Amino acid sequence: METNVSVTPSQAAVKAGLYLGLVMFILTLLAYFVDYSILVSFWFGIIILVLFFGLILYFGFQYRKSVGGYLEYSPAFVFSFVTLLISGLIGLAGNMILYQVIDPELPKMLVDAQLENMLQMMDRFGAGDSISGDQLDEIREGVEANFTVFGQIKSFAIGNIVYAIMALILAAIIKKRDKSLDY
After folding, report:
1. How far apart are CA 110 and CA 35, in angstroms?
2. Angle, vertex CA 119, rays to CA 52 and CA 166, nearest 5
3. pTM of the prediction?
4. Which residues pair with 176 in a beta bridge?
5. Rounded to the nearest 10 degrees, what angle do helices 149-174 and 42-66 cross at?
6. Binning pLDDT at 50, 70 and 90, where does residue 125 land?
7. Rg of the chain in Å (alpha carbons)
């Protein structure tokens, strides 16, 4: 088996992160062009999450294979975390372009669709009438703030904590110890 030890986990992760970020941005644009409300639907979020995890695992296993078939936990974590960071940065840039340049009205439409989804879910649980107009306005302001440039940067910064937790889990799956080195 040929090994390529000259490629560090970070270098491999940059390439994987670029691919992953571009795939996610293209899927976001496709959903936007088909029907913008897809972007705030529950099922779209689940599909994106599964695809996201699947692609990171695929790229992680490819990297592990390229370095000889074995990868310790620490480099697997670095690979996963850097991949998530790079793809997150591309997603952040893509969303800013989409929300601020391509369609500046989209955030308002997404807020409306998200609030509608939330109210429908509350109705299904029998709590739809328990929310007041003031509470709804407060929720609307909070959701709208997430679509501003500052709100997106803040969400990305907080998302880095989630990325670290996801990277811990992904690294545990990607790692493979060489048991022949045990004595």
Report:
1. 11
2. 20
3. 0.85
4. 71
5. 50
6. confident
7. 20
